[in-house]
């Protein structure tokens, strides 16, 4: 029979491994609940009563490796504690045409909701600092019938920017 010391060593190991994996997961990804319809039909489509839960990867934060079409989570410029989910439409140096007629400044991006009729985004608040980005949404993980990858796409009405 194994000695108590044996079990103690095993449990110590498991505990350490558990602790490390929790730290890693928190550092590299997180899970966020989507509220509202500003990103419909990508998230919370139609008049569904349930909310989508999504996986947010943070590896992209290292050197702001974002691209046009990425769905990102960022802190609200007006309320640091509030997280906002939008799609990147333009990156630094890109020009956003009429009625905005602006060039995206260094270190900023232009974000819009997929459901433009109910989204507060760069069209009203202007370019958003990339420093507010908290991660990129990669997958829908709940509810089960909605599980899938979140694609990097530029909406058709914005293709003229490319
Ligand atoms: C856009 O948002 C409005 C208001 O919340 C909602 O009624 C409408 O269904 C949404 N559009 C799409 C395509 O989901």
Structure description:
- This protein is α+β, with helices and mostly antiparallel strands and 162 residues long.
- It has one domain (29-159): Umud Fragment, subunit A.
- Helices cover 18% and strands 28% of the residues.
- The protein has helices at 4-28, 122-125, and strands at residues 29-33, 53-57, 71-75, 83-90, 95-96, 102-103, 108-112, 128-129, 133-142, 148-149.
- Strands 1, 2, 3, 4, 7, 8, 9 and 10 form an 8-stranded antiparallel β-sheet that branches. The protein has a two-stranded antiparallel ribbon with strand order 5-6.
- Strand 9 (133-142) and strand 10 form a beta hairpin.
- The N and C termini lie far apart (69 Å).
- 2-acetamido-2-deoxy-beta-D-glucopyranose (NAG) is lined by residues 37, 40-41, 45-46, 115, 117-118.
What is the fold-level CATH name, i.e. the topology? Umud Fragment, subunit A
Q: What is the residue-mean pLDDT, rounded to a whole number?
A: 87
Q: State the domain count.
A: 1
CATH homologous superfamily identity? Umud Fragment, subunit A
The end-to-end span amounts to 69 Å
Q: Low-confidence parts lasting 5 or more residues at pLDDT below 50?
A: none
Named once each, the bound ligands are: 2-acetamido-2-deoxy-beta-D-glucopyranose
Question: Any idea what the shape is?
Answer: elongated
**Cα radius of gyration in angstroms:** 20 Å
Series of secondary-structure elements, N-terminal to C-terminal: HEEEEEEEHEEE
The CATH architecture term is Ribbon
**Percentage beta strand:** 25-35%
User: What structural class results from the helix and strand content?
Assistant: alpha+beta
The number of helical elements comes to 2
Number of strands: 10
């Amino acid at each position: 029979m194994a000695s108590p010391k044996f079990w103690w060593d095993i449990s110590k190991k498991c505990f350490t491994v558990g602790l490390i994996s929790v730290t890693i997961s928190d550092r590299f990804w997180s899970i966020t609940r989507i509220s509202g319809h500003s990103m419909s039909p990508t998230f919370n489509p139609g008049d569904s009563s349930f909310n989508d839960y999504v996986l947010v990867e943070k590896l992209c934060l290292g050197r702001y490796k974002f691209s046009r079409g990425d769905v990102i989570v960022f802190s609200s410029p007006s309320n640091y504690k509030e997280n906002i989910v939008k799609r990147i439409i333009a990156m630094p140096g890109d020009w956003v045409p009429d009625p905005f007629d602006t060039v995206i400044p260094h270190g900023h991006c232009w974000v819009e909701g997929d459901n433009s009729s109910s989204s507060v985004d760069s069209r009203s608040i202007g370019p958003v600092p990339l420093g507010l980005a908290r991660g990129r949404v990669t997958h829908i993980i709940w509810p089960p019938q909605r599980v899938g990858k979140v694609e990097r796409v530029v909406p058709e009405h914005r293709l003229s920017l490319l």
